[in-house]
């Protein structure tokens, strides 16, 4: 009596299964975080910069007194007023500025070309970068809040719903910033020109979006322009968390409009996802 034997794979590859896209992406997060903190300029200009700016604004303008939403109304210190904007700027810098410059440099020095020849897919590469932004963004926000409470004497919210709002604004803001950073990395023609291309764009956005200037004091046309971009909505969402309710009257439409904050950030999240996938190349087409 004969028995049929099914052929089986033999050799070194037998029984070996390559990790999936998500597993590869997750495995790169630690590498990306380590690489980030090994770059002093990235740590200074994206991680520590909001903390330094909050200290400068607090020291420079505290002598002018508290900022009030209206005559006879309770105000907040200069540091407390600018804290939400610095948190929003931190999300933008950690995502857009950091990734746009970093990926453009990796494309220019041949790193992406080498990665393109490995089993690493663009999705896994994106996951590693986005994971790094979330890890460093959480650390940065934590440092900024700790410094605000201990060094600058800023009272933080105690209501759970305020922190719930902080959580979803932060997640949407960081995710949007990371994807837009990946998309923007395709604009600079080389790693050397990346800073010159990216930083001025983000600097202008920070000035018109209520980070370095009081948003309610800006001309209406400038507020309308800022409303087209995500940073304005990130800063507005953070102001809803850290400022008293009376300050809502200073917003463009006299309310925090958290529903529109969510809509705007989700829309930009989708835009960033589509653009990053359409524009990303391991090698520049004109290289």
Question: Could you characterize the architecture of this molecule?
Answer:
This protein has 287 residues and is mostly helical. It has one domain. It is 66% helix and 0% strand. The protein is built from ten helices and no strands. The radius of gyration is 22 Å and the shape is elongated. The model is unreliable at 1-9 (pLDDT under 50). Residues 41-286 form the ABC transmembrane type-2 domain. This is Transport permease protein. Its main location: membrane.
Number of domains: 1
In percent, how helical is the residue content?
55-70%
Tell me what portion of residues adopts beta-strand conformation: under 5%
Kindly state the mean pLDDT as a whole number? 89
| Extended strand count | 0
Q: What does the overall shape look like?
A: elongated
Class derived from helix and strand content: mainly alpha
* Low-pLDDT runs: 1-9
State the end-to-end distance: 66 Å
Quaternary structure of the protein:
single chain
Q: Helix segment count?
A: 10
Using only CA atoms, what is the Rg?
22 Å
Instruction: Please write the string of helix (H) and strand (E) elements.
Output: HHHHHHHHHH
Major sheet summary line: none
Domain ABC transmembrane type-2: 41-286
Transmembrane segments: 42-61, 81-104, 133-157, 163-184, 196-217, 258-280
Protein name: Transport permease protein
Subcellular location: Membrane
């Amino acid at each position: 009596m004969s028995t049929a034997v099914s052929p089986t794979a033999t050799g070194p590859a037998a029984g070996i299964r390559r990790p999936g896209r998500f597993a590869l992406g997750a495995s790169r997060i630690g590498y990306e975080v380590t690489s980030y903190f090994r770059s002093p300029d990235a740590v200074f200009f994206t991680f520590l910069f909001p903390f330094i700016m909050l200290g400068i604004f607090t020291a420079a303008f505290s002598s002018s007194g508290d900022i009030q939403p209206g005559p006879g109304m309770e105000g907040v210190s200069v540091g407390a007023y600018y804290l939400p904007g610095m948190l929003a700027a931190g999300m933008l810098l950690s995502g857009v500025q950091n990734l746009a410059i970093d990926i453009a440099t990796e494309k220019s020095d041949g790193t992406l070309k080498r990665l393109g020849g490995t089993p690493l897919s663009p999705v896994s590469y994106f996951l590693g970068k986005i994971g790094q932004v979330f890890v460093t963004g959480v650390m940065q926000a934590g440092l900024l809040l700790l410094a605000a409470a201990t060094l600058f004497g800023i009272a933080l919210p105690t209501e759970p719903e305020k922190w719930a709002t902080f959580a979803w604004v932060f997640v949407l803001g960081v995710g949007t910033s990371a994807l837009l950073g990946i998309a923007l990395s395709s604009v600079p023609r080389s790693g050397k020109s990346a800073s010159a291309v990216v930083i001025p764009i983000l600097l202008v956005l920070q000035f018109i979006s209520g980070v370095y200037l009081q948003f309610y004091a800006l001309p209406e046309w400038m507020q309308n322009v800022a409303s087209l971009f995500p940073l304005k909505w990130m800063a507005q969402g953070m102001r809803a968390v850290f400022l008293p309710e009376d300050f809502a009257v200073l917003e463009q439409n006299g309310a925090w409009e958290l529903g529109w904050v969510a809509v705007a950030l989700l829309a930009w999240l989708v835009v960033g996802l589509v653009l990053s996938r359409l524009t990303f190349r391991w090698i520049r087409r004109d290289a």
